[in-house]
Specification:
4 strands, 7 helices, 171 residues, alpha/beta
Length: 171
Amino acid sequence: TVTDIVNQGLTEKFNAPVKTISNGFEPEHILKLDLDTITLIDKFNLYDADYIIWLPVRITTRKRIQLAIQVAAAMSHLVPKEKVRLLIPGAIGPHSPNNSAYFAMLKDLVKELNAESVVLCLEDYYLDTSGRPKHLHNGMMYDFYKIAHLMLVTSDQEGFGLFLGEAALTR
């Protein structure tokens, strides 16, 4: 069979082991994904998610990331929680000292909404050899455009809107 669910049903019906055979489809090769991206995809089982929401922004208050968190948390009440993932690159904007406090507030909001498995700040999981967070490099940023089902923009203002061009070029 090609799925574990069908495998389980047949095993129960015939009281005999049934082997699951992969369909041979390897998106990481077709999409030419970076190895670091593949590592994060595998860590969070992103290929199993039905709603991958990409929020390609730095952590700054004017990006209104709390709205994206609320949207993802609400979606996770409509479909199984493991099917929704909000991906935030996680780089804290360097131009305001308030951004670190804003990031802490966002993490508190995620906990309050019980959305820890839904909202993923990728920089918390992309670490250097000493265990410190690293910024996602451009190749990874572009990869997440490729695998996302939805790009969400919650900013109250944008200067250039670079994400629109990036999204267009990766599709």
